Amino acid sequence: MTLEEKLWKTFNKALGHFQLIDEDDKILVGLSGGKDSLCLLEFLARRSKVHVPHFTVEALHVRMENIHYETDTTYLQSFCDRLGVPLHIVTTSFAPSGSPANDATTPDGSPSHKQKPACFLCSWQRRKQLFNLAQGLGCTKIALGHHQDDLIHTALMNLTFQGQFSTMPAKLKMKKMPLTIIRPLCLCQEADIRQYAEQQHYEKQLKLCPYEKDTNRTTAATLFQQMQQMNTEARNSLWHALESADKLIEY
Question: What phi and psi values does residue 78 have, to the nearest 5 degrees?
């Protein structure tokens, strides 16, 4: 079995196991331009050409004015054109933590971002744009490119820093809006996606996020590597624990 066949099989297994796609779904993909979101979009576009279930795919790339995090949008446009997927590009920004703009509640009534790290503010603003466009387009699902390693890292972070056993679920039905977040790459391993991206010659981002190497997620990734060195079955054990505790689907 080739790497492409392995990833494709794992991707489709996740779709069926977690019932991620329904008939007549309209799915908006968060396209950062990294290897994971490119792989996700490619696989969803390919899967949409299978007649059952019938669904459509569109993509959104959010550019953040005040973060030196660049992706060649010309490449993203050509990538989407080859797949036959409409691409939306939105430019936005966020106020620095602790600035007057963050001293009050946000427009939707959620708590202010005062004292929040840049990663939180950037992610929150990107999600806001995703939710806004998804509802404007009449989408039923938002697809994000998190893979199995991401979900395991999140579980380790929440356990270590928050004192709770939880993760980003493979399927999350939003309570305040008619949208469901899905993560179709949730059974795929990052190493496989990285190798596939190299085989497919995905273009790398022009500039990486300046904060991405200095986060609790980086610490959790290192911890996971150490756990795998102690026990080669650590991945399966952690995943089994998440499944047994019903942490991978939220309604």
Answer: -70, -35
Helix pair 73-83, 35-47: axis angle to 10 deg: 20
| pLDDT block averages, 10 residues each, the chain of length 251 | 98 98 98 96 97 95 78 92 98 68 44 63 89 98 98 96 96 96 98 98 77 76 96 97 97 87
Burial class (CB in 10 A: 0-12, 13-18, 19+), 60: buried
DSSP 202: P
Instruction: Look up residue 125 and give its DSSP letter.
Output: H
Who contacts 127 (Cβ-Cβ below 8 Å, separation ≥6)?
Answer: none
Model confidence, pTM: 0.90
Q: Kindly write down the DSSP assignment for every residue of 97-121, as one continuous string.
A: TTSGGGSS--TTSPPP-TT--HHHH
